Amino acid sequence: MMTLCEMAVDVLTTADGRAKTAKSRAHVEAWFDARAAGTPLEIGQADPPLRPARPQSPALLDPRDVPKRKPGSPAGRIALLHAVAHIELNAVDLHWDIIARFADIRMPVGFYDDWVKAAGEESKHFNLICDCLEALDSHYGALPAHAGMWRAAEDTADDFMGRLAVVPMVLEARGLDVTPGMIEIFRKAGETRAVEALEVIYGEEVGHVAYGSKWFHFLCGRHEIDPKDAFHDLVRRYFHGGLKPPFNEEKRAEAGLPPDFYWPLT
Ligand SMILES: [Fe+2]
Ligand SMILES: [Fe+2]
Questions:
Q1: Where is this region: Disordered (predicted)?
Q2: Which pLDDT score, from 0 to 100, does residue 92 have?
Q3: Is the pTM of this model over 0.90?
Q4: Are 170 and 239 in contact (CB under 8 A)?
Q5: Which ligand ends up closest to the CA of 84?
Q6: Which ligand is nearest to the CA of 125?
């Protein structure tokens, strides 16, 4: 039987997107089966790669070199879905990475439940968006993608609280801000399949931000530090460029992110 950390490294070192998400979903099932049986898997120890394995395509370009397309055109909508698929694949790796990278820090088993569940959901999101691309005669890898997506993980590779602050509480919270506008673009175009996929993503991402907030607050409590001040310090240290309104205040609140956390960082 593999430890949870071995499972995480198995996902992180698999390059192909569909193969990565298939392994991810199988490991999620194994974890929760063992939990349900009352015989939880060992967390173990791992040495995850600094960067996860990725497929040959898409080519990864500096964000400035990724061509911009009008969202009103069919090609623009394919480009938008392609960008979402890239984000979801990164998210699969990010959730497995937080499990393996910080396994030496003692955490309640619920921490692992949350990130294993989130990794399974990201795997489903990637597959749903790939299905949409394929239904439009495209695929993940057909267009270039942003190279900077793993930057936040590398910058916070030695800082557990920094990782929680920047990845779920800044980057995934940003997803809550922009997804309703994306859903509208596909609704106007009559692309029902993409609307349905994005609605699944929108619903489940609230949970990922909430897990971030929950475990960030837990660690602040453990170290007896003020969560809001710690959040501001860590985001300023590791996230470059400031946060951009408008914010989805309703969904952020649902996820445990109050306005005094993010407004001072704009
Ligand atoms: Fe996702
Ligand atoms: Fe997510």
A1: 42-72
A2: 98
A3: yes
A4: yes
A5: 1
A6: 1
Q: What is the pLDDT of residues 133-144, one digit of tens each?
A: 999 999 999 999
Torsion-angle region of 105 (φ positive above 0: left; ψ -120 to 50: alpha; else: beta): beta
Ligand 2 center from residue 130 Cα (angstroms): 16
The CATH code of the domain at 4-46+68-265 is 1.20.1260
| Distance in Å, CA 197 to ligand 1 centroid | 10
Residue 205 CA to ligand 1 center (angstroms) comes to: 6
DSSP code string of 26-46: HHHHHHHHHHHTT-PPP----
Give the residue ranges of DSSP H helices in the chain: 4-12, 17-36, 74-101, 109-135, 151-155, 160-166, 173-188, 192-223, 227-238, 249-254, 259-262
Cα separation, 77 vs 74, in Å, equals 5
Backbone angles phi, psi at 68, to 5 degrees: -95, 135
SS (H, E, C) 130-179: HHHHHHCCCCCCCCCEECHHHHHHHHCCCCHHHHHHHHHHHHHHHHHHHH
- Token readout for 42 is 């060992």
Is residue 249 predicted with pLDDT exceeding 90? yes
Q: What are phi and psi of 213, to 5 degrees?
A: -65, -45
**pLDDT, tens only, 21-61:** 999 999 999 999 999 999 999 999 989 999 999 999 999 99
Cβ(61)–Cβ(143) under 8 Å? no
